[in-house]
Specification:
The protein has 9 helices and 9 strands. The protein is an alpha/beta fold. It has a single domain, classed as Rossmann fold (3-Layer(aba) Sandwich), CATH 3.40.50. Helix 5 packs parallel to helix 6. The longest helix is centred in the C-terminal third of the chain and has 20 residues.
Length: 264
């Protein structure tokens, strides 16, 4: 809203919610915008009748039972007539969030603000991301995420950086939340007015370490990912994380064919 007030002629009053659940719960950041009159697009992979019910009176295109991936997201956005410069764009699909973001940006979409779920167990500078694979599952048969999901903070920021996005806010504290907010550099000075001057120089690792460690999904498979948090022997740590990811990948899927990115 601060950006729209500063640049009213560039406001689209349009928001995108990919991974909307019921559109309201889990501190969803898009619902207040829809309530304020924003048009937009809300997408959920499951058959969630509550999403349709909660957004039915609003100027929002609702898609349920719609599994998005890097191969179809651009077509979905085009069919919904999503503006190239929407005001707010959220991704939270508990899977290949990183490649999905990359596909959106490569297609020329430049939302003013991105809010992206990140996997909080990988400390910067570790880059992790699950690649798209039709066999990928967010949870295993026992309902466990296992740590093998999503993308790390460092990966998401690296994907967005060439498109001139900067990290302005990180939230691992609010319930059900482990999200990073990125703002296009054209509006970075507005973000400074909102979040403070220190975001101009703060590193990703400083953003990360300001937050207490959260729940460890890797611990569901007996892996102590909390020990990764303060490690500085990054190249040794990378090998240990690789082994942990392979273990979690195989435990979740029964095989290791779901590819992932891991680097530093």
């Amino acid at each position: 809203m601060a950006i729209n007030q500063a640049f009213p002629q560039q406001a689209t009053s349009y928001a995108v919610n990919i991974g909307a659940h019921d559109g309201v719960s889990y501190n969803d950041p898009v619902y207040p915008l829809f309530q304020m009159g924003f048009a937009g697009l809300a997408i959920e992979g499951g058959d969630n009748e509550a999403l349709v019910r909660n957004l039915s009176s609003l100027a929002v295109t609702v898609l349920t039972s719609t599994l998005v991936d890097p191969t179809n997201i651009v077509t979905i956005l085009q069919d919904a007539q999503c503006p190239r410069t929407s005001d707010f764009f959220k991704i939270d699909i508990d899977g290949y969030d990183g490649p999905l973001l990359k596909a959106v940006l490569e297609a020329g979409y430049r939302p003013k603000v991105l809010q992206l779920e990140v996997n909080p167990e990988f400390p910067p500078p570790i880059e992790f991301a699950v690649h798209y694979h039709p066999d990928y599952r967010a949870i295993d048969d026992a309902g466990r995420f296992s740590g093998f999901y999503g993308a790390s903070l460092a990966y998401m920021c690296k994907v967005a950086q060439p498109y001139k996005y900067r990290c302005v806010y990180l939230d691992f504290v609010s319930d059900w939340t482990h999200d990073v907010t990125l703002v296009h550099e054209d509006y970075f000075e507005i973000a400074i007015a909102v979040f403070g001057e220190d975001i101009r120089t703060k590193t990703l690792r400083e953003f990360y370490l300001e937050h207490p460690p959260g729940y460890s999904h890797f611990a569901e498979y007996g892996i102590d990912s909390s020990a990764w948090r303060y490690r500085t022997d990054v190249h040794v740590l990378l090998n240990e994380i690789w082994t942990s990811c392979m273990h979690a990948n195989i435990r979740k899927h029964g095989h290791a064919s779901v590819a992932f990115h891991l680097a530093c």
